[in-house]
Amino acid sequence: MSYLENKIIPDQRFAKRNKIEYNVFSTEIEDASTVENWIGLEKPIKVLLDSETYSRLRNRRIEWDFDGEKTLVGVHIRSGETKD
């Protein structure tokens, strides 16, 4: 299993879209304000991803990692496993 850390600066790890709060996650970008188009995931949690991060995680078995304050800090990727 590998681990990817959330590179978004801590005070930008939450955002609202249509009055719904999302976690913001990227393995590539530090400043969320530089991304024009976010990809929104609804399940199992609400997360906004940049396109590069989405491509990296797509069709993989992942487990989101949260800290004690319920902030998304990383993701575990189960090596070699893809989602059917």
Structural features, described:
By secondary structure, the protein is mainly beta. It has one domain. Helices cover 8% and strands 45% of the residues. The chain has one helix and seven strands. The strands form two sheets. Strands 2-3-5-4 form a four-stranded mixed β-sheet. The radius of gyration is 12 Å and the shape is globular. The model has no long low-confidence stretch (mean pLDDT 93).
Characteristics:
4-stranded mixed β-sheet, single chain, mainly beta, 3-stranded antiparallel β-sheet
Number of helices: 1
Proportion of helical residues: under 10%
Number of domains: 1
- How far apart are the termini? 18 Å
How many β-strand runs?
Answer: 7
Basic shape: globular
The helix/strand series, from N terminus to C terminus, equals EEEEEHEE
**Mean pLDDT, nearest integer?**
93
Give me the secondary-structure category. mainly beta
Rg calc: 12 Å
**Largest sheet, if any?**
4 strands, mixed
Low-confidence stretches: none
In spatial order, strands of the major sheet run 2-3-5-4
How much of the sequence lies in strands comes to: over 45%
